[in-house]
Design goal:
221 residues, alpha+beta, Arc Repressor Mutant, subunit A, four-stranded mixed sheet, two-stranded antiparallel ribbon
């Protein structure tokens, strides 16, 4: 399916399981800026919305509730993505509100969130730069392990592709992505399997796809 179909399925799935304030917030808080981020930044990168939650509810440091524009949640990462428009509500913000917003972000970081903010103008005028930032941040969840390992450049690129896709990958996909021979890709994948970074996902006599090993899926114990 294309963006429009996937987007509607994504939103409908979240609308159906929400009620009360959580439902109202999704209906009223998710607007053009948030949809533009998904269309211009997120979709070209991943072509799916798995692990992404719109208008995600978190506990406020004052014992209330706050809502993140998007939360990307996987075993090793909690990423908050905020899309800020430059409207009257921002231009007319009070000093108290300004301080409160900073405190809110600080508390998210203390609670283990990585916080990334984009302006609506960034999303509209320079979506590629926004894509690069998202890629770098999400790729970092195994970045430390990768840097400490002896992975070659090609091995790292295969691993990044597996992380970006979020599901099993096939050798053919890797060949097309890296534009290398099937022999080279098979050798690199075999090396990653030996290191328990990739494990077979389908096939018996001849493995057809691979997924991330447990040590990569859960690098933070």
């Amino acid at each position: 399916m294309g963006f429009e179909e996937e987007y509607q399925s994504f939103m409908n799935a979240h609308l159906q399981v929400r009620s009360g304030e959580r439902l109202r917030r999704l209906q009223e808080g998710h607007q053009h800026a948030e949809m533009s981020f998904l269309k211009q930044v997120w979709w070209p990168l991943f072509h799916h919305f798995r692990y992404l939650h719109p208008e995600y509810e978190v506990n406020d440091f004052k014992d209330g509730k706050r809502y993140l524009d998007f939360a990307y949640i996987r075993p090793a990462i909690r990423l908050c993505l905020e899309i800020d428009g430059y409207g009257p509500h921002l231009r007319n913000i009070s000093r108290w509100q300004f301080t409160d917003n900073l405190e809110r972000q600080n508390q998210l970081v203390i609670d283990g969130w990585t916080v990334i903010r984009f302006s609506y103008d960034q999303v509209k005028e320079n979506p590629r730069r926004c894509q690069q930032i998202v890629q770098q941040v999400i790729g970092r969840w195994v970045g430390d392990d990768m840097d400490r390992s002896t992975l070659s450049l090609v091995e790292k690129e295969v691993l990044r592709l597996a992380i970006q896709k979020g599901e099993a990958i096939s050798p053919i996909e890797v060949e097309k992505h890296l534009k290398l021979s099937s022999k080279t890709i098979r050798k690199v994948i075999s090396q990653l399997v030996d290191k328990n970074i990739l494990i077979p996902a389908s096939g018996v006599m001849r493995v057809r796809s691979y997924r991330l090993g447990e040590q990569v899926q859960n690098p933070i114990q």
